[in-house]
Amino acid sequence: MSDTSMDKSDLAVDGEVVAEKLEAAKADAPSLIARIRRSDVWYSFTRSPVAIVAAVVVLIIVLASIFAPLISPQNPFNPAELNLMDGFTAPMEPNQFTGSVYWLGTDDQGRDIFSTILYGSRISLFVGVSAVALAMVIGIVLGLVAGYRGGWADTVIMRVADVQLTFPSILIALLVFGVVRGLVPPDMRNDLAVWILIVSIALSDWVQYARTVRGATLVERNKEYVQAARVIGVKPFAIMMRHVLPNVLGPVLVIATIGLALAIIAEATLSFLGVGMPKTTPSLGTLINTGQDFLFSGEWWILLFPAITLLALALSVNLLGDWLRDALNPKLR
Predict the structure, then answer these.
(1) 127-165: string of b/e by CB count within 10 Å (b at 16+)?
(2) For 254-300, what is each residue's pLDDT tens digit?
């Protein structure tokens, strides 16, 4: 047998051995769940009773809002299911006209408070998550550009951020809401109220993401891996997306978690002030707005139960954000 044929056979054998080792390594590799359970974040979570209770409360509210059509005894959006005679029914007491009993009572329109809380939480969570996601996108993009490019781009973006920080975010949201609402045709305002609210909250909260990403980018852009990418000819946009962005997302996730609670409260505040969701659409803010009209006339439950839900949701998300900040802080490990 020639040397060439022997070399080819040896290469084939070596290839089979390498393939077998790769397959064995893949089989022995831990699953995603196993890696999560071995992580420092999971260890910190299981050792924090406050974080566990907060996560359970958030999970219950989120699941209840998602499955609201299956859980709620009434659809508050459907006028055919409402009975004005059931209005102002106290919790767990039969209505004097219809005899109907509701766990948390009813409002002035005969809507079941329990059902309105489920559907209202759905809208509040959607607005909060969407507003935070949009604010993150805006802030991350502007922060990366300001930190990586520098120069006039950094100056313009940061000066706009500094000016916006001089005003309370709720005033910025009110201003944006009024301007955007004025640009929308009157017959479409109620239909687009959710999206106008999302844009208003996002444009009032992007600054904190931009400043955080800019600061982290200023540190990352001078490291060796970024300089190596420049040397081999990688384009700036690719460097920012592939190399810099993954290394600055840690602080952003913490801000987003805490920002979610603030976005939910902002939605409730704007709706309570009458410039957010219309009163015909139940959100936690509109429910509280409706309830405060009847608080001193004895119908306390219309305000109390939505307010407790908003408090529990915002507090739980905030506690999760505090835990996540500590869990991702290497100085506290």
Answers:
(1) bbbbbbebbbebbbbbbbbbbbeeeeebeebbeebeebe
(2) 889 888 988 999 988 888 887 878 777 778 888 888 888 887 888 88
pTM tops 0.85, yes or no: no
User: 106: helix, coil or strand?
Assistant: strand
- Which is nearest to 204 in space by CA: 123, 139, 115? 139
pLDDT at res. 177:
86
Higher pLDDT, 22 or 160: 160
| Nearest residue to 127 (alpha-carbon basis) of 278, 274, 233, 265 | 265
Give the Cα separation of 316 and 221 in Å (integer). Answer: 36
d(CA 218, CA 277): 40
Helices in the chain by DSSP H: which ranges? 3-28, 32-38, 40-46, 49-66, 68-71, 113-149, 151-165, 169-183, 193-220, 224-231, 236-238, 245-272, 284-293, 301-327
The CA distance from 154 to 326, in Å, is 30
- What is the phi-psi region of residue 268: left when phi exceeds 0, alpha when psi lies from -120 to 50, beta otherwise? alpha
Could you tell me which of 293, 211, 225, 287 has the C-alpha nearest to residue 255?
Answer: 211
Tell me if residue 112 falls in helix, strand or coil. Answer: strand
Beta bridge partners of 106: 112
Q: Using the 8-state DSSP alphabet, how is residue 243 labeled?
A: I
